[in-house]
Design the sequence.
């Protein structure tokens, strides 16, 4: 019986999303601190390209994919699937363009919310013998399809529908999807995973499946699925896993269920069994493996969790430390420049020029970004209005006076004025030997040849002070 309450539909969709762990978390759900895959999901949503590159690099380490198949997995080329021999899809597939239709339409959250009603009901009917194998009543199934297509909420507890009716409609929905639930892009990767076997002590390949590598490979591969596919696959495999756990009552083992669902989960569309030939048994076994180990496959490997956690931790620490260091340097420079202008002989005033040079070099070497622009703005703010670098020039030198503000000094230091350096060197050749010796002593101190405690700054004439300051840069 259908009801049209929007509140009930919203509650159903919310329940479906909560069942799928770590799948498309909302803003509120992202506060789940105890989720071990929190940083993995954060990386997937905030930096999908970095996430995909990380996962693909580990997949290529575990399985050997040729260039063309790896390009298909990346989505760089169109996937190649076995040729079709005239497989006919259901007539209902032609109705997919109708508004509100979910059968035969691309997978969406709305479609998953509707199908979740079937999954939720079947989870309470695991005792039914032959579940998913015995077909139900076609008339009841058609009525159920129409109600699902209309977006209605269905009360399956009334007894109007048999569990076999619901199971058959669920299989029909999966069979009419435009592509299998595991997608065409992943087809060859799943074949490679099925072939993973152990090696003996001499390094020779054996026939014993390497389950550990298979599970890790599937964990990585399923992380690359589109979010709707991953969500529905998680719901479906959970249901099939629980069904197989009750095989003593329903007579449906993991392999029996795989035979029922492999054509809808992993087989390429528009093909039949004859097109797959020798791969059909391998694909069926792959689905059985998915069912048996479904409780492990939707958890990220430990090394992926650690990499994602370190990615955000290092980024946050680096950004915070850069901003703290920059603010401290800017405040120190602001205080030092004012002290020098007032004739102060404090230690901060003595090291102003060196700190400025280091700070400007650091800013200039940063890549172009919003953070670099923010640092420059902060540095401008740290310098109080009217503050300037020490102006030790004579009145005759001030004919072409240039700005000594913090912003002007940054621009000159970032661009690098080689002509000014050459000019300062030529001017130094005309200065007295005492000034030259003292300037060399300052350079040696900066290069670590002289202890900073053994040098006492002297007071010079305006001309000498200008020459020494220019030589430092």
Sequence:
């Amino acid at each position: 019986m259908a009801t049209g309450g929007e509140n009930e539909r919203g509650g159903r969709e919310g329940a479906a999303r909560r069942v799928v762990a770590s799948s498309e978390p909302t803003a509120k759900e992202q506060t789940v601190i105890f989720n071990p895959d929190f940083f993995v999901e954060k990386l997937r949503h905030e930096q999908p390209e970095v996430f995909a590159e990380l996962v693909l690099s580990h997949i290529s380490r575990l399985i050997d994919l040729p260039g063309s198949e790896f390009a298909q997995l990346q989505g760089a080329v169109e996937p190649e699937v076995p040729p079709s021999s005239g497989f006919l899809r259901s007539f209902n597939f032609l109705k997919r363009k109708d508004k509100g239709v979910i059968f035969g339409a691309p997978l969406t959250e709305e479609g998953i919310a509707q199908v979740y009603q079937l999954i939720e009901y079947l989870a309470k009917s695991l005792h039914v013998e032959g579940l998913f194998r015995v077909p139900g009543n076609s008339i009841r199934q058609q009525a159920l399809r129409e109600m699902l297509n209309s977006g209605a909420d269905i009360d399956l507890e009334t007894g109007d529908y048999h569990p076999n009716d619901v199971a058959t409609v669920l299989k029909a929905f999966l069979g009419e999807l435009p592509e299998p639930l595991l997608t065409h892009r992943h087809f060859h990767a799943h074949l490679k995973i099925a072939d993973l076997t152990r090696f003996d002590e001499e390094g020779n390949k054996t026939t014993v499946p390497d389950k550990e590598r298979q599970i890790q490979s599937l964990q990585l591969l399923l992380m690359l699925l589109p979010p709707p596919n991953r969500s529905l696959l998680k719901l479906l495999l959970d249901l099939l896993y629980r069904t197989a756990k009750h095989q003593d009552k329903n007579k449906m083992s993991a392999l029996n269920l795989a035979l029922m669902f492999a054509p809808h989960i992993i087989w390429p569309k528009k093909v039949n069994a004859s097109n797959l030939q020798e791969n059909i048994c391998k694909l069926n076994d792959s689905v059985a493996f998915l069912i048996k180990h479904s409780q492990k496959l939707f958890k990220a490997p430990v090394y992926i969790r650690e990499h994602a956690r370190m990615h955000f931790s290092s980024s946050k620490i680096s950004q915070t430390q850069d901003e703290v260091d920059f603010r401290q340097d800017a405040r120190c420079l602001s205080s030092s420049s004012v002290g020098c202008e007032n004739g102060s002989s404090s230690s901060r005033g003595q090291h102003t020029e060196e700190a400025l040079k280091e700070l400007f070099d650091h800013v200039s070497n940063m890549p172009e970004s919003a953070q670099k622009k923010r640092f420059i703005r902060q540095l401008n703010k740290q310098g109080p209005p009217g503050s300037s670098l020490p102006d030790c020039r004579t009145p005759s030198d001030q004919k072409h006076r240039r700005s000594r503000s913090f912003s002007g000094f940054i621009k000159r230091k970032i661009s690098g004025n080689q002509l000014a350096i050459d000019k300062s060197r030529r001017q130094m050749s005309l200065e007295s030997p005492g000034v030259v010796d003292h300037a060399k002593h300052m350079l040696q101190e900066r290069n670590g040849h002289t202890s900073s405690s053994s040098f006492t700054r002297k007071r010079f004439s305006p001309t000498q002070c200008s020459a020494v300051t220019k030589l430092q840069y």
